[in-house]
Amino acid sequence: MGCRGTMKNTMKMGINKSGGDDYFNRLLSYFKQQFHEPILKMEQIRDSVYFVRTMTKKYVVKGYSKYKKLRLQETFTRTLHQEGFNKTYQYFQDITKEPLFFEGESFGCIEYLSPHHKSFTFDSNKDRKAGLKLLEEFHHVTASCVPRYQTLLPYSNMLEKWSERLKTFKKYCSKITYFLNEQTVNELIGWAEWSLNGMKENEDFFFKKPFVILHGDVAHHNFLRDETGMLNLIDFDLIHIGPSSIDYLQYANRILPSIDWSIDKLSQYKQIGEHTQEKAFLYALAFPTDIFREWNRIMREKKYTKHYYSDYVIDLTLDQLHLRRKFVEEIKILIAKM
User: Fold this and answer.
1) HSE (side-chain half, CA atoms, 13 Å) at 228
2) Does 19-111 match 152-337 in CATH topology?
3) Is 58 helix (H, G, I), strand (E, B) or coil?
4) What is the spatial distance between Cα 20 and Cα 43, in angstroms, rounded to a whole number?
5) pTM of the model
6) Per-residue confidence at 21, pLDDT binned at 50, 70, 90?
7) In the predicted structure, residue 252 carries a pLDDT above the cut 90
8) Topology of domain 19-111, per CATH?
9) Peptide bond between residue 210 and the one before it cis (omega within 30 degrees of 0)
10) Torsion angles phi and psi, residue 109, rounded to 5
11) What is the rounded CA–CA span in Å between residue 205 and residue 282?
């Protein structure tokens, strides 16, 4: 696992901290006691995730709220390597004196993948294709793993998840209309309701076997090109079981802003194109899941009072709204012809 992007709130060894940084210093002291090798440097990457460099190696140390979540991640990544999928990191368990448990969190030590100077991006057609190929390889391997994990992982239920996402967005509507005009909010809700109704009418598609273990979060930052140039898939916190089309649908949603919301361009990707002939998949593409996710998040966490967060979500909503509107109309025409 590499350190992606700019590290905010970077905290380094040897600098005196106070107040809110007391936790970091306590954690560092604890790690120093537990690691077999002296720690030369420690930096915070994001909440509960730290970069640690010892005398001979580099690690990413990640905290989990429950020990069983850590064990699942350790077991799953080990399974991937055993099954021949080596394009990801491994967990190490022999570099500390005992399992790391600090103030309610269990910490796992992950292999540090040194990043390539050229980051993976959905803005690159070459990278979009490479990401899909890697995801296809991941699904091919995990298909045989489903029986072993069927009692450990949840099954995909996107209809329920998106229905709840729409319900939450509606709950926050009165606040959201301070940032967006009512017409735009109603248009988004209209697309979502039309999409969900169509998905429910064709719901068998979303439960169609064969099943694989889905990654569940195919955002660009979970594709990491290491220093050798090899593309890796990382962060399996949201793995669950279902048809591979669910991951491809999420991937499609992620890359659409980079391909001008073009259904023709989207259909040219082999792994996605075969699904664009399915009504259920097309209905799902119209659901504004990214917009709902971000508005619900900043409302739930009360971050809308900070311009940095509200401006980002407003831009996400409005910058390509005209392209998204055209895209939804094209989808409606395609479905009507089926």
Assistant:
1) 5
2) no
3) strand
4) 15
5) 0.92
6) confident
7) yes
8) Phosphorylase Kinase; domain 1 (3.30.200)
9) yes
10) -100, 120
11) 11
Contact assessment for residue 98 and residue 34, using Cβ atoms and an 8 Å cutoff: yes
Q: Which residue has 């064709």 as its token pair?
A: 202
List, as own/partner pairs, every contact residues 121-128 make where C-beta atoms lie below 8 angstroms and the sequence separation is at least 24, other chains included: 121/220, 122/220, 122/254, 122/255, 122/257, 122/258, 123/258, 127/223, 128/255, 128/258, 128/259, 128/269
User: Per residue in 196-215, is it b (16+ CB within 10 Å) or e — as a string?
Assistant: bebbeebeebbeeeebbbbb
How far is 127 from 140, CA to CA, in rounded Å?
Answer: 20
Tokens of 134: 């890697």
pLDDT digits (tens, 9 = 90+) for 136-168: 999 999 999 999 999 999 999 999 999 999 999
CATH number of 152-337: 3.90.1200.10
Task: Of 242, 247, 297, 302, give the one whose Cα is nearest residue 269.
Answer: 247
Asked if 234 and 217 touch (Cβ cutoff 8 Å), the reply is no
What is the identity of the amino acid at 279?
A: K
What are the structural domain ranges in the chain? Answer: 19-111, 152-337
Closest-CA residue to 83 (of 129, 138, 130): 138
* Residue that has been written with the tokens 């392209």 in this structure: 323
